[in-house]
Specification:
- The structure holds 2 protein chains of 2 kinds.
- Chain A contains 11 helices and 14 strands.
- Chain A folds into 2 domains: 197 residues, no CATH class; 137 residues, GMP Synthetase, Chain A, domain 3, CATH 3.30.300.210.
- In chain A, a hairpin with a 4-residue loop joins strand 8 and strand 9.
- By secondary structure, chain A is an alpha/beta fold.
- Chain A has an 8-stranded mixed beta sheet with strand order 4-3-2-6-7-8-9-10. A 4-stranded mixed beta sheet of chain A has the order 11-12-13-14, with helices on both faces.
- By secondary structure, chain B is an all-alpha fold.
- Chain B has one domain: Up-down Bundle (Amino acid/polyamine transporter I), CATH 1.20.1740.10.
- Chain B has 16 helices and no strands.
- In chain B, helix 3 crosses helix 9, helix 5 packs across helix 6 and helix 8 runs parallel beside helix 11.
- At the A-B interface, helix 7 and helix 10 of A face helix 12 and helix 13 of B.
Chain lengths: 375, 367
């Protein structure tokens, strides 16, 4: 009896393993990065980076394994067609379920980025946590960089994006989180902007790329993007600035102060007047820690520094907002607030260009709360 | 008639109603509701809860008049033997078809989300196997299983709550934009995903408790389900931009947790689905149980287990019939009047008719 039952159980176990849907790692070639570009002829070009494991003989005769990457690209009508074309060029099946990065070329992003992402949203096996970024120039070209540290280019860029995210230089976004923002008429997205540095030997975060609905329409530099993220209440672990505060000290280094923002308080107020004009009051209060002040004695000049810094930051914030408005990139989600709180005004607004006409009044207050372990 | 093995406590009743109600509809509920009532979908869900509560009161009124009889005994008692048997047969068919529809929807979701290459009949067969095993013994063993698996819902709740960290609560505003009529229309969809409470029509005499306590148990189970559903709808409304993104996403709850990966687990949507499968199994088991019990009363046998192979076989075949999404939708639409007549109209008529019967208590079941 017991043996019979055991026999039945083992048969059941064999039957329910789901043999049809197995995806064996040995047959798969994992895609680590996907790039979307527009060629000079205006055609769509798709690129993949796949890991390439090779053996590295060392001096002592032992072999170590290292990973760099193999890059492929093709011209196609759609991403899926491109993948089918590339699949015939490599052994094994291309598998994008572990994809970590999607890079858009600058020229491509100036068109519409939404259709290219459709295949990723539609396929249940695709990875929605992949990071998105825009690259100055051609995205595929960045894959051929051979970095000295972390030789696998996809890992390299991924680590770069993660570390700059913690430093509040670029926003934390993934394919999933941009979906709603792309489709929302009252909000626009910003994505990390990468560029090749040092004559094409390294990759560098240049700042953020601003989007108008689904099209790339402007950029912010690294320092501007940090301030922008603070204005948008998206502080990550660190947010550092170095600002010019003292006039004309003999030694240039003495003219500057470096700060880390400890915490922020942001107030965003949207109001409307009778004529349907939209006003935004944007107040940002920064509590900062002085990390570097070569000339010394912070407590002595704390009021003076607070004033000076508040002025500088307010001016910078105005510039950032001006750039956003020029790009028509409503990253603050002013439109969403109009939909939510001033629905009638929203109905009368020009749904595509409303953001350019919003009147901003912004103010940044800086307060030094710590100065490290020396004065 | 009611043996010790088949009676259940009122707590078990509470859990059985919850597990029968929560089923296959839960995944697509936010999408279906928000198609009509947009960002006021959560209000629609609450309205649906109210509607169902009223129906529960009617059903309770009927059961209270015949506290020791199941629905299959009430019908012949009120309508006479011939007509009663005919209606009973209709009920059995209705339960069989509802079970098949749920099974079909289940296999379709598994097919598009996880097991794309596995043939559907395998999924359906495995599921039915589990359900047959679950209902073949007495009511009490079934109740114990339902109680045992209910805490799994906490995991669903936790996963959904985790994904709220990327939510934008402004999507919910302005409240009431879609208008009252749309909110009520939207609540129709939510009502269908709350089906399963009709199990009370059968369970009622088996519960060892007073009438009021039974009502309290059923209503609180329903309250739990309503609040749980409202929370899920609310979560997907604030996660997705309602008018376009949620419109494009038929199973929003799965989608919103698909993007996250933890240290060890990636693709937590698969994790979510595995827990969801249990809730589906309990719903299908309920309908399987109801239909085979019906046959037991129809043929006046002692045990329902003998009919299980037949009901399961019919459910299996019907579940295989719709082979793509539009078929399922038609099937679903076709069932709407059936739900309405078997759960609202017929019990209501019985309830009204029962007042014309000589008012004698039928073996009041005392604890």
């Amino acid at each position: 009896m017991k043996i019979k039952r055991l026999f039945m159980i083992s048969i059941c176990l064999l039957l329910i393993t789901g043999c049809w849907d197995q995806n064996l790692m040995k047959d798969a070639t994992l895609i680590q990065t996907i790039t979307f570009d527009q060629t000079d002829e205006g055609e769509f070009s798709l690129g993949f980076a796949i890991p390439n494991i090779y053996r590295n003989p060392t001096d002592s005769g032992q072999e170590t394994e290292a990973i760099n990457s193999e890059n492929l690209s093709t011209v196609a009508n759609t991403p899926r067609e491109g993948r089918m074309k590339l699949n015939t060029e490599i052994p094994g099946n291309l598998d994008s379920s572990k994809n970590k990065l999607v890079l858009f070329g600058e020229q491509f992003a100036k068109g519409d980025i939404y259709p290219s992402l459709d295949v990723i949203w539609r396929d249940p096996r695709s990875s929605l946590s992949a990071k998105l970024a825009v690259v100055k120039g051609k995205a595929f070209d960045t894959l051929s960089i051979q970095p000295r540290v972390e030789s696998n280019i996809s890992q390299n860029i991924l680590y770069l994006i993660r570390s700059t995210e913690t430093n509040t230089i670029i926003p934390e976004e993934s394919i999933q989180t941009v979906a709603s923002e792309l489709l929302d008429p009252g909000e626009d997205i910003v994505l990390p902007l990468l560029k090749m540095g040092r004559n094409g030997t390294t990759i560098d975060v240049a700042g953020v790329a601003l989007f108008d609905e689904r099209k790339l329409s402007g950029t912010l530099s690294q320092e501007e993007s940090t301030l922008f993220l603070l204005l948008n209440n998206k502080k990550s672990k660190y947010a550092r600035f170095t600002k010019y505060v003292n006039g004309n000290k003999e030694l240039n280094m003495n003219n500057f102060i470096s700060l880390n923002v400890d915490h922020i308080k942001r107030k965003l107020n949207v109001s409307v007047n009778d004529r349907g004009e939209v006003f935004v009051n944007l107040n940002l209060h920064l509590k900062v820690i002085v990390e570097e002040y070569p000339i010394g004695n912070v407590p002595n000049k704390v009021d003076q520094l607070n004033n000076k810094l508040s002025n500088t930051f307010t001016n910078n914030a105005e510039e950032v907002i001006k750039k956003l408005q020029e790009a028509n990139c409503d990253a603050f989600g002013i439109g969403r607030r109009l939909i939510a709180f001033h629905h009638d005004t929203w109905k009368e607004q020009d749904k595509t260009n409303y953001f350019k006409d919003v009147k901003f009044k912004s103010k940044v207050d800086v307060e030094i709360i710590q100065h490290g372990i020396v004065k | 008639m009611i043996t010790k093995e088949s009676s259940i406590s009122k707590t078990q009743l509470f859990f059985m109603i919850i597990q029968s109600q929560i089923g296959v509809g839960i995944l697509s509920l936010p999408h279906d509701v928000s198609l009509i009532s947009k960002n006021d979908g959560w209000i629609s869900t609450l309205i649906a809860g109210l509607i169902v509560q009223t129906i529960i009161l009617v059903l309770w009124g009927l059961c209270r008049r015949f506290p020791s009889l199941t629905i299959y005994e009430i019908i012949p008692h009120v309508l006479g033997k011939r007509l009663g048997k005919a209606i009973n047969l209709c009920y059995i068919l209705y339960f069989v078809v509802t079970g098949s529809l749920v099974l079909s929807r289940f296999s379709q979701i598994i097919d598009i989300w996880i097991l794309q290459r596995t043939p559907n009949w395998i999924l359906i067969l495995l599921m039915l196997g589990v359900c047959v095993y679950l209902v073949k013994d007495n009511l009490r063993s079934m109740a114990r299983f339902y109680v045992l698996v209910t805490p799994m819902l906490i995991i669903l709740f936790g996963l959904i709550t985790y994904s709220l960290k990327d939510a934008n609560f402004l999507y919910l505003l302005p409240i009431g934009q879609s208008g009252i009529s749309n909110m009520i229309k939207g609540s129709k969809e939510a009502t269908f995903s709350m089906l399963g409470f009709e199990f009370m029509l059968f369970l009622y005499p088996f519960v060892k408790a007073s009438n009021t306590r039974k009502l309290i148990a059923i209503s609180s189970a329903h309250l739990f389900v309503t609040l749980f559903y409202t929370y899920l709808v609310f979560a997907s409304l604030v996660f997705f931009e309602t008018r376009e993104d949620l419109y494009l996403t038929p199973q929003p709850l799965l989608y919103m947790i698909k993007a996250y990966s933890f240290q060890i687990i990636e693709r937590i949507d698969l994790f979510f689905l595995s827990i969801w499968i249990i809730s589906v199994a309990t719903s299908i088991a309920t309908w399987l149980f109801l239909s085979s019990q019906g046959l037991k009363y129809l043929f006046e046998r002692a045990n329902h287990a003998a009919f299980l192979p037949y009901t399961a076989g019919i459910i299996f075949i019907i579940a295989l019939l719709p082979d793509h999404e539009t078929d399922l939708e038609k099937f679903n639409k076709l069932m709407e009047p059936a739900h309405f007549s078997f759960i609202v109209v017929i019990p209501l008529c019985l309830f009204l008719l029962s007042f014309f019967l000589p008012n004698k208590k039928h073996g009041d079941y005392n604890v």
